[in-house]
């Protein structure tokens, strides 16, 4: 910004020192906070890592046997959400950036962003009250007619509150951020490339396939990874919608479902006592590590492309 | 018209006289709507027959959904027959892309309708003037939750606005080298901290210093602040970078110290954008449930003291009313929906005011 101040040493007034000092202090607070999050979580979870069922009543045998199914459920639910949300978010982003009338585009983008403003607990209520009853007939049809397919094996859940429903709710919740990033990259496609494709006689889809999508590929990847990070950490909607039993299964439509780390903490924490609290905090630490890795990976992809200014 | 002496039709079948050579081989512009209408009508007819056969009610949503799904292959087929493979593909993708947008609207519309219809049942004066103390069954309200939400969100804002704003000033005006790069990276990563981890962090801090099982309003505020700081930093940083360098250089040229330049020139220029960003960040954390459930707990009584005792908040109120249903369950569910409606109204109002601030108080350049 002010490259002159580095070349010529400006006079340091007391106000300058106080102001720059407090700015540096505030910046360091961020580092401190993140370090504190890590340290406090580690301190609280260390005793739980080596606990057995004698120390903490919620452990079946030891800590790793408890956390294993939860990690599986977390990744499985997030993956389901991502599989559903990715094509839809690319579609919406293309619709807003290249198909919708130019004048409507920003309004439509704002409407999609409204989805992000809905609190997750409201998504949870909606998932139980509206979505689960609405998809239950579809589930029982799938089990009756496509039950031979391993993912759709029966018996069907009577309430519809399965891992697939939780995945749908998660997909709706990660849509806005993924759409926002995809839209931003698609809009950055050089207009000359698009016009060149159209001038060669390409239809609109051929123009998008040859000019827009190759240009936006890394943006799409980072949008998916950020969406994955969101889906991994989402708590209340899953805690409310999913009726979990803690099993490890890929079956989507039965009433036997794996739980997720975040949902399990939210459901068990208010009643937890003693060592159980440490066990739950330790599962939270694992969630923190996983999402930290996923987000750092996403940011690394974004930063490889300098011209892309970043998410949000 | 058809009897012109055009040599072209000689090579074509006589049954398709060419009216306009520019639109030949193209579907007319009304074709997609025609196909869509027909598809929905066909689906509606099939659903009508099924409804008569089963003797059940008519499923409007299903009919429109199946009709819209039917449209996608049929427009492809018609386009394939008339326009050829490439245009058919183009029309197929247009239908799919538009469908993706409509698909995303379904949950939004359904959610709005549901929350408004269910929420209005208990959206009355009692809801906003009573707490849940000694209330079982019907009656009661969410005043304690509204007060708790305002107190905790306010405290979180008091913690995170100075830190976030000063950090963004550091990054834009002072930050050079490794520390600035590290902070930028960590702020990005912090944006992705799961909200429940922030709650666990606040719980862990306060239970180490104040004994295990401590749940207070200030712990909830700290967990919200952890979620809020990165959002404030991101948005303020973006706004500060928009301030033209010429303004700073003009101030320096007049001999104004750097800190006064920031306070008197840079901040006033970008204050509208910064306010918008802060309000949007408040709107984001005000709906957080999981960290408050962990760090602040829940209660049925009023609590005005952030530093003593558990504190209820609106999102947690929604959750506890749903999760601990008593008798009759409808009373609890109605309260949950009414609180959800209140919460959504608050978030929408914050969003709206933020956009209005951005529009009306934006700096005016280039007179």
Compute the number of strand runs of chain A.
0
Identify the most extensive interface between protein chains. A-B, 101 and 104 residues
Helix content of chain A: over 70%
CATH class of the largest domain in chain B: Mainly Alpha
Termini Cα gap of chain B? 59 Å
CATH topology category name of the largest domain in chain B? MetI-like fold
Mean pLDDT of chain B, rounded to whole units? 84
Q: What kind of assembly state do the chains in view correspond to?
A: heterodimer
Q: Architecture of the largest domain in chain B, CATH level 2?
A: Orthogonal Bundle
List unreliable stretches of 5+ residues of chain B. Answer: 1-10
Strand content of chain A: under 5%
What's the structural domain tally of chain B? Answer: 2
Provide the residue-averaged pLDDT of chain A. Answer: 84
Ranges of chain A with pLDDT <50 over ≥5 residues? 1-5, 308-312
Total count of helical runs of at least 4 residues of chain B: 13
Q: Please give the alpha-carbon distance between the first and last residues of chain A.
A: 23 Å
Number of helices of chain A: 12
Q: Quote the beta fraction of chain B.
A: under 5%
Summary keywords:
heterodimer, A: mainly alpha, 12 helices, about 75% helix, disordered C terminus, B: about 375 residues, mainly alpha, MetI-like fold, disordered N terminus
What would you say this structure looks like, in words?
- The complex is a heterodimer of chains A (312) and B (367).
- Chain A contains 12 helices and no strands.
- Chain A is mostly helical and 312 residues long.
- The radius of gyration of chain A is 24 Å and the shape is flat.
- Chain B is 72% helix and 0% strand.
- The model of chain B is unreliable at 1-10 (pLDDT under 50).
- With 367 residues, chain B is mainly alpha-helical.
């Amino acid at each position: 910004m002010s490259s002159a101040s580095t070349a010529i040493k400006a006079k340091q007034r007391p106000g300058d020192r106080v102001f720059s000092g407090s700015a540096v202090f505030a910046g360091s607070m961020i580092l401190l906070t993140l370090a504190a999050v890590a340290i406090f979580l580690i301190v609280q979870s260390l005793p739980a890592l080596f606990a057995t069922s004698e120390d903490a009543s919620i452990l079946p045998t030891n800590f790793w046997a408890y956390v294993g199914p939860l990690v599986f459920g977390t990744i499985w639910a997030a993956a389901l959400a991502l599989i559903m949300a990715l094509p839809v978010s690319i579609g919406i982003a293309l619709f807003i950036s290249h198909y919708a009338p130019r004048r409507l585009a920003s309004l439509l983008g704002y409407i999609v962003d409204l989805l992000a403003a809905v609190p997750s607990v409201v998504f949870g209520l909606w998932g139980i009250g509206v979505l689960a009853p609405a998809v239950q007939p579809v589930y029982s049809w799938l089990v009756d007619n496509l039950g031979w397919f391993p993912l759709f094996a029966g018996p069907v859940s009577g309430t519809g509150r399965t891992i697939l429903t939780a995945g749908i709710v998660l997909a709706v919740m990660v849509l806005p951020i993924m759409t926002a990033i995809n839209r931003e990259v698609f809009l950055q496609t050089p207009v000359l490339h698009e016009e060149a494709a159209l001038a060669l006689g390409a239809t609109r889809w051929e123009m998008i396939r040859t000019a827009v999508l190759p240009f936006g590929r890394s943006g799409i990847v980072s949008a998916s990874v950020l969406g994955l990070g969101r889906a991994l950490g989402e708590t209340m909607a899953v805690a409310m919608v999913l009726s979990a039993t803690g099993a490890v299964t890929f079956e989507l439509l039965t009433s036997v479902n794996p739980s997720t780390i975040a949902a399990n903490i939210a459901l068990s924490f208010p009643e937890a006592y003693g060592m159980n609290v440490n066990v739950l905090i330790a599962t939270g630490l694992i969630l923190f590590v996983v999402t930290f890795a996923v987000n750092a990976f996403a940011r690394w992809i974004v930063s490889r492309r300098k011209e892309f200014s970043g998410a949000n | 018209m058809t009897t012109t002496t055009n040599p072209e039709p000689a090579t074509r079948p006589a049954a398709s006289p060419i009216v306009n050579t520019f639109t030949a081989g193209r579907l007319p512009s009304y074709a997609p709507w025609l196909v869509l209408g027909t598809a929905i009508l066909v689906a509606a007819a099939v659903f009508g027959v099924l409804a008569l056969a089963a003797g059940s009610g008519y499923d409007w949503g299903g009919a429109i959904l199946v009709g819209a799904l039917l449209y996608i292959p049929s427009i492809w087929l018609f386009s394939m027959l008339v326009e050829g493979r490439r245009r058919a593909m183009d029309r197929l993708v247009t239908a799919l892309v538009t469908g993706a947008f409509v698909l995303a609207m379904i949950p939004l519309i359904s959610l709005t309708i549901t929350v408004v219809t269910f929420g209005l049942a208990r959206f009355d004066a009692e809801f906003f003037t009573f707490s849940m103390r000694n209330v079982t069954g019907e009656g009661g309200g969410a005043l304690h939750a509204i007060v708790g939400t305002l107190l905790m969100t306010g405290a979180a804002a008091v913690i995170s606005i100075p830190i976030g704003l000063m950090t963004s000033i550091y990054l834009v005006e002072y930050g050079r080298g490794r520390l600035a790069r590290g902070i930028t990276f960590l702020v990005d990563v912090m944006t992705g901290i799961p909200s429940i981890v922030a709650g666990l962090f606040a719980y862990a801090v306060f239970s180490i210093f104040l004994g295990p099982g401590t749940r207070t309003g200030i712990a909830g505020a700290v967990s919200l602040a952890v979620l809020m700081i990165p959002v404030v930093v991101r948005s303020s940083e973006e706004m500060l970078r928009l301030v033209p360098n010429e303004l700073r250089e003009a101030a320096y040229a007049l001999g104004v110290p750097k800190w006064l330049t920031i306070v008197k020139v840079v901040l006033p220029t970008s204050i509208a954008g910064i306010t918008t960003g802060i309000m949007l960040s408040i709107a984001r954390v005000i709906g957080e449930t999981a960290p408050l459930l962990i760090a602040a707990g829940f209660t049925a009584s009023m609590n005005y003291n952030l530093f003593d005792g558990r504190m209820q908040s609106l999102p947690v109120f929604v959750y506890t009313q749903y999760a601990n249903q008593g008798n009759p369950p409808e009373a609890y569910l109605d309260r949950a929906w009414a609180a959800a409606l209140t919460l959504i109204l608050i978030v929408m109002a914050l969003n709206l005011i933020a956009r209005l601030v951005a529009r009306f108080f934006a700096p005016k350049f280039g007179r």
